[in-house]
């Protein structure tokens, strides 16, 4: 008896679901909803907002020329503040709002937390800036792609620069204990040890937001390091480099693209002079990059910020994959991303099996007269 | 040995900053038995006020000394008025409510102020102007004690002495001590308790503002979030020294600053907070009222 009743309930429920689900299917037919997730407020907002701008520019362009195979692009912009606990809420909200593809995840930690939710919903995620290596290399997130090279590529470049170009033999490695900074620092340490030409004299984590870092700077001085390789973001980097100058420590400073931001130079002022950091290759000679920057100026009246070109490229790759696949089904999108090259501000890119963009890399930059200058 | 001295001074100047903030916690607790969680935000507002005033005065081209003094005064006045207002808005209406209500109100105030500065100012880090120049006579030992460290230590010491004198010898100081001992009795002998409480908030906030100004010119940057961790650390220092006790707050702060510095220097900065809080736990196990706190006998 109870079995029959359950069947009846199930049948009624199924019927009810169908009537509810049908109008939904009708709605999604004429728009493609792209979720844009990233820090749009808080202290890392300067990394997230350029991606929103890139998404808006491309969405406007596509919609003005008739959409993706006739479907209009609609953006769902949601803030993650770069905090894992908020990013999961954001992900759930985007999924329930009907997003079909996701542009973003700016910080690695927040992106990693949100990815399982997108994976369960079968959504493609392309990040312009999440560089934590396992995101692609672990194979846990087959829905994840990125238009930036992973941290280990950066760490390798920074270590080669320190050892081969500068000839340092004693290196202090410091990080901010976060997914991104610590990941980068551990790779740097591993590569330094593997090179056999230099030693890691100090490996430490600092607490972000701490009142000051003078004790750790004294420790660097005591270790006799010729350079500090720092993994983390610009707020800690500018505090550490300022304190290094205050304590008359003349070791150089090498960091990652979390630091290669104009805010670092603005905040550390004259103390930033001479600091090195790796960042995405300078693409300003690429006509598409020039066009993207011009579009940003026309639409927002300012120069674009961090990761703008990566975001622009990610958005282009995503929308052209959707056009080529004529669907937002994950398997079809993946096939398109991996086989059809896309012309982007970063050059012509496709993606490898694991989701990393082929043909995207890093260069070393130095602060010279208050500007980041690419070193050839 | 040099290394030891370097770490010692790093810890001492950090402790001095903690002390300026911890005083506000301990004074307010001593008088109304409330943990004023919005106090870290007062420190942050002091730093922001200093930033604005110092930037304007620098543009006007005033001499450096005038800038420092005027900035200090502006930060103190502005933060003190915030402290005064917070007490009137968030705590006074709850004075007879259960303690928990006032505590929640304090946490709410802290979040409100953080977000208010975030929205009204910026979420970015701002470069703080170099107010304290590198003194030429400090150059030989600049690698151990910088000019800013020196200014921090001197200013904190002067502020402490000023506060001690104020509490010990002035009318308002006596009224504060009386209110701390027994509020009802103080009222009965004609002390205007409301005014004493306001004065406590004003003095505590002024100290925090000085701390904000000093640390901002020491590290050269500010942000709306700096009050949170500094506030937690200063609160820890106040508890360590015995909350409610003014010398205790100073001692607790110096001990905390030195512990953090030596833990970083001799063990690892990864464990800086582990050491700081293990110390707190240990002291509270063996001396639950803190280093200089008075044991509270419960009347049954």
From TrEMBL, chain A:
It holds the Pfam family Peripla_BP_6. CDD domains: PBP1_ABC_LIVBP-like (cd06342). GO terms for biological process: amino acid transport. Residues 1-25 form the signal peptide. Residues 31-370 form the Leucine-binding protein domain. It comes from the Bacteria. Keywords: Amino-acid transport, Signal, Transport. Belongs to the leucine-binding protein family. This is Branched-chain amino acid transport system substrate-binding protein. It comes from Desulfofustis glycolicus DSM 9705.
UniProtKB/TrEMBL annotation, chain B:
The keyword Membrane applies. Coiled coil: none annotated. It is found in: Cell membrane. It comes from the Bacteria. GO terms for molecular function: L-isoleucine transmembrane transporter activity; L-leucine transmembrane transporter activity; L-phenylalanine transmembrane transporter activity; L-valine transmembrane transporter activity. Keywords: Amino-acid transport, Cell inner membrane, Cell membrane, Membrane, Transmembrane, Transmembrane helix, Transport. This is Amino acid/amide ABC transporter membrane protein 1, HAAT family (TC 3.A.1.4.-). The chain crosses the membrane at residues 16-35, 42-60, 66-85, 97-121, 141-167, 274-293. One of its GO terms (biological process) is L-isoleucine import across plasma membrane. Belongs to the binding-protein-dependent transport system permease family. LivHM subfamily. Pfam families: BPD_transp_2. It comes from Desulfofustis glycolicus DSM 9705. InterPro entries: ABC_transp_permease, BCAA_transport_permease. Its main location: membrane. GO terms for cellular component: plasma membrane. The keyword Membrane applies. It is a multi-pass membrane protein.
